Amino acid sequence: xxxxxxxxxxxxxxxxxxxxxxxxxxxxxxxxxxxxxxxxxxxxxxxxxxxxxxxxxxxxxxxxxxxxxxxxxxxxxxxxxxxxxxxxxxxxxxxxxxxxxxxxxxxxxxxxxxxxxxxxx
Length: 121
Known about the structure:
0% of the residues lie in helices and 55% in strands. It has 121 residues and is mostly beta strands.
């Protein structure tokens, strides 16, 4: 069984930094990290950062210049470096990836369970 597990969330003061990690485990033949989303209380889930099909990166306007997404597909990992955090960044952060469990299998989409990031003084 394949699963994604995020880590690195927590409480941080405004202006601080956090690095989120997302690790995939289970029966994995191929891994392709897709991105990070977040959901704040009372709001819809929104895209934070993602990789395009060409391997470039896209960011929500609200995080451009502050957040950096990276990945290591060989290690089944995806990261989100968050700097200059603001109170409005408070949310549950979810990673997203597509995974093939066998060489000839189909790509399936997976989500982590989420990690809480709280930005507060």
